[in-house]
Amino acid sequence: MVKLSSDDKVLPMWIIQELIKFNPEFEERIKVADDQINKLHFDAVIATGSNNSNRYFEYYFRNYPQILRQNRTSVAVLNGDETPDDIKLLADDIFMHFGLGCRNVSKVYLPKGMALDILFENFMGYADFINHNKYVNNYNYHKAIWLMNQDKFYDNNFILLKEDEGLHSPLASLYFEYYEEIDLLKARLDEQEKEIQCVVSKLNLNHSVPLGKAQRPEWNDYADRIDTLAFLLAL
Fold first, then answer.
1. Phi and psi, residue 219, nearest 5°
2. If we measure between CA atoms, which residue out of 130, 40, 38, 122 comes closest to residue 78?
3. What DSSP line would sit under 123-170, residue for residue?
4. Cβ distance 133 to 169 under 8 Å?
5. Would the pLDDT of 4 be above 90?
6. Is 207 a residue whose pLDDT tops 90?
7. Residues in Cβ contact with 210 at an 8 Å cutoff, skipping those fewer than 6 apart
8. What b/e sequence results for 89-114 when a residue is b if at least 16 CB atoms lie within 10 Å of its CB, and e otherwise?
9. Could you tell me which residues come within 8 angstroms of residue 14 by beta carbon, excluding any fewer than 6 positions away?
10. What is the dihedral sign for C-alpha 199, 200, 205, 206?
11. Strand, helix or coil for residue 103
């Protein structure tokens, strides 16, 4: 039983239609619900929403087996030895799908002293994003806000880089932060594990994936590292 997000109805419906083409029996086994949630009858729940909506889900679905997903993002950790080709792969992790996915990198950790030039130079493959109306609106909006607040940031005319301790950078921007000791950074990332979907790096870090692979997960890279199939089979 599927309750569609109001902002994301196209792709799920396409997938359902493709499943029915593959096996017509799916037509009777899949129901797209137009009713309110409190009118539905179900045995278990997999739900995705914001951190705020997740609090309501936790209460409403408290008596059901559940997988509840909330806001996450991904980060990259560089060691300073990356080549231009490595940074181009990182650009895919940042910009693919306009940076809107939880596997998109919204924060980059750099070794202290590393220049930003190599980032800007090798992000240019996505310079055309500035011609996308919604993207440029976000770019102009956050640039104006940071200028008015006299915040320090770097601009290459299609993405804004800002040194910030936060993980979730706004659309059309990228947060970065310098680190000195990798072990201290590892400890911080472990503390923030519930906010991070994956770590992109050439280093061997917890749940790390290679550069360029954030939006190319393997078949067993489950969201939030929860084995969805094991959950379903255990019902």
1. -60, -25
2. 122
3. SGGGGGGGGSHHHHHHHHHHHHHHHHTT---EE-SS-EEEE-S-S-PP
4. no
5. no
6. no
7. 89, 200, 202
8. bbbbbbbbeebebbbbbbbbbbeeeb
9. none
10. positive
11. coil
- Token duo for residue 106: 């919204």
Nearest to 157 by CA among 174, 134, 133, 136: 136
Domains of the chain, CATH where assigned: 10-70+224-233 (no CATH), 73-209 (3.40.309.10)
pTM of the predicted structure, to 2 decimals:
0.87
For 206, phi then psi, to 5°, come to: -60, 130
Q: How sure is the predictor about 38, in pLDDT bands with cuts at 50, 70 and 90?
A: low
Cα–Cα distances (Å) from 5 to 124, 209, 220, in that order, read 33, 29, 25
- pLDDT range class, residue 81, cuts 50, 70, 90: very high
List pLDDT tens digits, range 208-222: 999 999 999 988 888
CA distance 72 to 189: 13
Residue 60: Cβ within 10 Å count:
14
pLDDT value of position 113? 93
- Quote the tokens at residue 174: 């990228």
DSSP state of 104: S
The answer on pLDDT for 114 being more than 90 is: yes
What tens digit of pLDDT does each residue of 181-196 get? 999 999 999 999 989 9
